[in-house]
């Protein structure tokens, strides 16, 4: 800035050009002033139109004044010191300073000041250029304020989240189930330690991948995909989805999947929490128990069938008048019968346990069924007389075979547990909307303690256990059958005075 | 109920028994023979169909749960072939839902193991003396 462009300009000698330059300066929307540094206090000697517009002052209030009047009473700004320094050093400066209009309205002034030097190197003038940047400044300030408040809020929330996340994390990590957090595109966001342990994988080969691409694509199942894709839009969880698969590292397993939509204080709304449980052992045990009992009873029945057949053949080919042999055959037959019953009971229990005890519904003559059952029992037992009293006259709708099994079981027990007596009594009756069957024996009876437990599986009254063989499942099966018909079964007894077993079944005569 | 041996034609193989258990097979053979009916037994179910082709019996007593070729599959195959229209099929099994499987496959009758030989004899009586 050693030259003075105004003085050196050829245009300056041309009055027409001079007025054109003034017109151009006045056309500008930027304020422009010139001060004379040679005069005391560096007064303004020129200003354009825009300077009036920006400041609200008129020429008489401007010309001859030092420009500091724009600062009003706001004099202790750092910018002012910087300007003074620059002016003193004869350097140019760009600065933002708070100024006030004539009406005392604040405006942010973006100010350029350039010194003009003469041939001797003395600063003779300064040119000042002003732009009102209040609007821009406001936006900037607002941004700063907003940014600060956002940062503060974020900090607060992060703290909250950090605490709830820590809480969640501690739950997630201590839980023994494998957990996977998925984003809406079913990408893995996080997994817990249990997951890594169960599947023998590392975080790096899991996180960030799509669920379907994990391992050897074990979760790439169309049905599972459909269900998982519905979790977020519908908030419907996936429950108990089982996947049987040969997994890498861990081999053949059955995994049970549960998936829920999760939300944490609005931080993440659209997350799916997938819980994976290894149910291989549980299923295997269930299946083995099922298989074992049905295979065992099948395998037991096969030789039994052969033995029973041969026994009956012996009977056919046996010479007559051989009482010794007849007696042996008779006894063998009884043992075969017993074995057959035990196997049948075993099978019944296995059916009940696996929920496969089918109850068929057919209408049958209840009283006739009881008479037939008694007749059958009397064929094999002449130690006790089974006395039948009362009637139901019911055409009952239920499973005749199974109910007859219960009746037979109760009467046989009554006989079995009253040795030395000569009769048991059966009562039939109708109650309101029910039919009732009871059988009374005159044996040892059952004490209160045992009465509650006799219907338990494999429970046998201690004092009786040693005397009589059997699985002790007859009453358990009977209770199951009666319950499945909507009825109840119970025992009344006073120790030493025999016992009465009863059941009622809902029935209304049509 | 008893069938006297002299009432039966012993010349042809009228009854075929197929069961993978030797004990059952021998017992059934004795029962059928006890009434003077000729019987032929097969322990390997996969060989049964070929044998039946050459000589169609009147009665087939067949087990369900057999390795190689399960009984219900054999029954289905026979029922799809007009050649065996007159064959009476008695299915015997210790399986839990044996009756349902047998009847669905097309057996004429089902007996659960363990059966009474009287039940077998009455089937023989009925089927072999039909005509
Ligand atoms: C050419 C020129 C233009 C200036 N324009 C402004 C202005 O627009 N607003 C302002 O507050 N100060 C402006 N100043 C600065 C003041 O005039 C003054 O130099 C400043 O306040 C420092 O001096 P002080 O401490 O004596 O007030 C300008 C100065 C010069 C030389």
Automatic annotation (TrEMBL), chain A:
Keywords: ATP-binding, Kinase, Membrane, Nucleotide-binding, Phosphoprotein, Transferase, Transmembrane, Transmembrane helix, Two-component regulatory system
Residues of the PAS domain: 17-90, 164-208
Histidine kinase domain sequence ranges: 295-509
Record's catalysed reaction(s): ATP + protein L-histidine = ADP + protein N-phospho-L-histidine
GO CC annotations on file: membrane
Stated name of the protein: histidine kinase
Membrane topology per record: Multi-pass membrane protein
GO biological process, one term: regulation of DNA-templated transcription
Chief location: membrane
Residues in PAC domain copies: 93-145
Enzyme Commission no: 2.7.13.3
CDD domains noted in UniProt: HATPase, HisKA, PAS
Signal sequence bounds: none
Superkingdom of origin organism: Bacteria
GO molecular function: ATP binding; phosphorelay response regulator activity; phosphorelay sensor kinase activity; protein kinase activator activity
Cellular location(s): Membrane
InterPro entries: BphY/WalK/GraS-like (IPR050351), HATPase_C_sf (IPR036890), HATPase_dom (IPR003594), His_kinase_dom (IPR005467), HisK_dim/P_dom (IPR003661), HisK_dim/P_sf (IPR036097), PAC (IPR001610), PAS (IPR000014)
UniProtKB/TrEMBL annotation, chain B:
Domain (Response regulatory) ranges: 14-128
The UniProt record lists the keyword Plastid: no
One GO BP: phosphorelay signal transduction system
InterPro entries tied to this protein: Bact_response_regulator, CheY-like_superfamily, Sig_transdc_resp-reg_receiver
Keywords on record: Phosphoprotein
Pfam families, sorted: Response_reg
Sequence positions bearing 4-aspartylphosphate: 63
Cross-referenced SMART domains: REC
Protein name according to UniProt: Response regulator receiver domain-containing protein
Species, as recorded: Sphingobacterium paludis
Upper lineage: Bacteria, Pseudomonadati, Bacteroidota, Sphingobacteriia, Sphingobacteriales
């Amino acid at each position: 800035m050693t030259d003075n462009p105004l003085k050196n300009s050829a245009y300056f000698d041309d009055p027409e050009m001079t007025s054109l330059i003034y017109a151009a300066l006045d056309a500008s929307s930027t304020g422009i002033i010139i001060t004379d540094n040679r005069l005391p206090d560096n007064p303004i000697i020129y200003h354009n139109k825009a300077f009036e517009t920006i400041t609200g002052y008129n020429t008489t209030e401007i010309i001859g004044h030092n420009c500091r009047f724009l600062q009003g009473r706001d004099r202790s700004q750092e910018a002012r010191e910087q300007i003074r320094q620059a002016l003193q050093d004869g350097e140019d400066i760009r600065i933002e300073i708070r100024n006030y209009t004539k009406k005392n309205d604040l405006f942010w002034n973006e100010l350029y000041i350039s010194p003009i030097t003469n041939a001797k190197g003395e600063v003779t003038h300064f040119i000042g250029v002003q732009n009102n940047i209040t609007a821009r400044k406001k936006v900037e300030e607002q941004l700063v304020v907003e940014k600060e408040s956002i940062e503060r809020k974020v900090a607060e929330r992060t703290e909250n989240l950090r605490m709830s996340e820590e809480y969640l994390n501690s739950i997630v990590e201590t839980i023994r189930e494998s957990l996977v957090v998925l984003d809406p595109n079913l990408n893995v966001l996080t997994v817990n330690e249990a997951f890594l342990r169960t599947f023998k994988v590392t975080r790096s080969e899991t996180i960030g991948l799509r669920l379907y691409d994990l391992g050897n694509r074990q979760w790439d199942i169309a049905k599972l995909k459909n269900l998982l894709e519905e979790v977020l839009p519908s908030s419907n969880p996936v429950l108990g989805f089982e996947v049987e698969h040969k997994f890498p590292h861990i081999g053949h397993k059955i995994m049970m999947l549960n998936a829920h939509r999760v939300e944490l204080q609005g931080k993440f709304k659209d997350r799916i929490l997938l819980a994976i449980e290894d149910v291989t052992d549980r299923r295997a045990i269930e299946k083995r128990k099922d298989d074992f009992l049905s295979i065992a009873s099948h395998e037991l029945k096969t030789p039994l069938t052969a033995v029973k057949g041969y026994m009956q053949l012996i009977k056919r080919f046996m010479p007559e008048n051989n009482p010794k042999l007849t007696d042996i055959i008779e006894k063998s037959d009884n043992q075969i019968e017993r074995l057959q019953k035990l196997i049948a009971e075993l099978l019944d229990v296995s059916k009940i346990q696996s929920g496969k005890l089918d109850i068929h519904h057919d209408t049958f003559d209840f009283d006739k069924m009881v008479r037939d059952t008694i007749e059958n029992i009397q064929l094999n037992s002449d130690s006790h007389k089974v006395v039948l009293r009362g009637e139901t006259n019911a055409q009952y709708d239920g499973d005749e075979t199974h109910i007859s099994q219960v009746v037979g079981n109760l009467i046989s027990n009554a006989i079995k547990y009253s040795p030395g007596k000569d009769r048991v009594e059966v009562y039939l009756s109708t109650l309101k909307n029910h039919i009732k069957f009871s059988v009374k024996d005159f044996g040892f009876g059952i004490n209160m303690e045992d009465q509650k437990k006799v219907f338990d599986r494999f429970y046998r009254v201690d004092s009786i256990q040693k005397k009589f063989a059997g699985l002790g499942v007859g009453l358990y099966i009977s209770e199951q059958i009666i319950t499945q018909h909507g009825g109840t079964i119970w025992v009344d007894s006073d120790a030493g005075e025999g016992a009465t077993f009863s059941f009622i079944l809902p029935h209304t005569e049509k | 109920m008893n069938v006297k041996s002299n009432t039966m034609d012993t010349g042809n193989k009228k009854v075929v028994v197929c069961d993978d258990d030797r004990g059952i097979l021998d017992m059934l053979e004795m029962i059928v023979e006890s009434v003077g009916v000729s019987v032929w037994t097969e322990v390997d179910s996969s060989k049964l169909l070929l044998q039946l082709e050459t000589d169609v019996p009147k009665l087939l007593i067949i087990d369900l749960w057999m390795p190689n070729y399960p009984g219900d599959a054999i029954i289905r195959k026979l029922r799809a072939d007009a050649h065996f229209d007159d064959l009476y099929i008695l299915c015997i099994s210790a399986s839990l839902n044996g009756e349902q499987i047998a009847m669905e496959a097309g057996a004429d009758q089902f007996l659960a193991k363990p059966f009474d030989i009287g039940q077998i004899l009455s089937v023989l009586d009925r089927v072999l003396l039909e005509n």
